Amino acid sequence: MDLTLDRPFVFGIVNVTPDSFSDGGRFQSVEAAVEHVAQLIREGAHGVDIGGESTRPHGAAAVSAEEELQRVVPVLREVRARFDDLIISVDTTKSGVAAVVLAEGADVVNDVSGLRLDPRLGDIVAASSAGLVLMHSRGNVSEMGTYRYAEYSADVVGDVLTELHGSIQAALGAGVSQDRIVVDPGIGFAKRTEHSLAMLAELERLCALGFPVLVGASRKRFVGELTGVSEPSDRVFGTVGANVAALMRGARLFRVHDVAANRQALDVAWGILATDVSRGRPGSQFPVPGSQHA
């Protein structure tokens, strides 16, 4: 199916991990995860992003493809069976995992390594005609959520754009259609607060690449540092502020934990932008593959 971004698109986060930074361990059973998906849909999610490997700050533990599949596939199967028209993204850096989840009915692969860690993932996505999210990050899964590689020149955005350009070229070279690529600045990944703020403030430079932009600022560390809120689950209002600012600078897709608050705020902000035609932007096309389930 082709998804027209004529309004902000909200992905609800479904972490089926024991160690994610905000909600690790809450949705490890299939029943809990599927009920969470149902709740996200009730709150207004257009799609969900299912992840089976944490990239939390302060160092996540890498897991094997086998373990990641054991976590993700049972949830994916049940969600696909129950919610036929739901857009499902799976967050993985592994081509083996991508191949299985796409065969099981996932519509999008969200690669937080931007094809750095497993270039063959691009071939898998191209063969399936799936959507592909390319996020900027540095380091491996255990490192990318830390500050180990958070060193940039005076032009942070320029550095990120250069590195994302490499990911885009790798995807195109693998045969992924240009109109099936989304880019993500990687807020909080190998980025200190000042780096994340620079990316959000100059997001229009990323939009100028010509691909739809997804922002994942939900409950991130920079929100806590700016607001003084230490508990990630309490960073709802700060997240909403970041996402509305990102929308005004051109982002159209948002990955969030707290769907209702973000969906309502983004819909109102979008209504204002659409009314002010001097600042309005045409909707972008992000084709998502159909499947036997959709």
Tell me the layout of helices and strands.
Elements (H helix, E strand, L loop, with lengths): L1 E4 L3 E7 L14 H14 L3 E5 L13 H18 L4 E5 L3 H9 L4 E4 L8 H9 L2 E5 L20 H19 L6 E4 L8 H9 L1 H5 L6 E2 L5 H7 L8 H13 L4 E4 L2 H17 L8 E4 L7
Descriptive key words:
8-stranded parallel sheet, 10 helices, TIM Barrel, alpha/beta, single chain, two-stranded antiparallel sheet, about 290 residues, 10 strands
Describe this structure in words.
By secondary structure, the chain is of the alpha/beta class. The protein has a single domain (2-275), classed as Alpha-Beta Barrel (TIM Barrel), CATH 3.20.20.20. It has helices at 30-43, 65-82, 95-103, 120-128, 156-174, 193-201, 203-207, 221-227, 236-248, 259-275, and strands at 2-5, 9-15, 47-51, 87-91, 108-111, 131-135, 181-184, 214-215, 253-256, 284-287. The chain has an 8-stranded parallel beta sheet with strand order 7-6-5-4-3-2-9-8, with helices on one face. Strands 1-10 form a two-stranded antiparallel sheet. Helix 2 (65-82) packs parallel to helix 3 (95-103). The radius of gyration is 17 Å and the shape is globular.
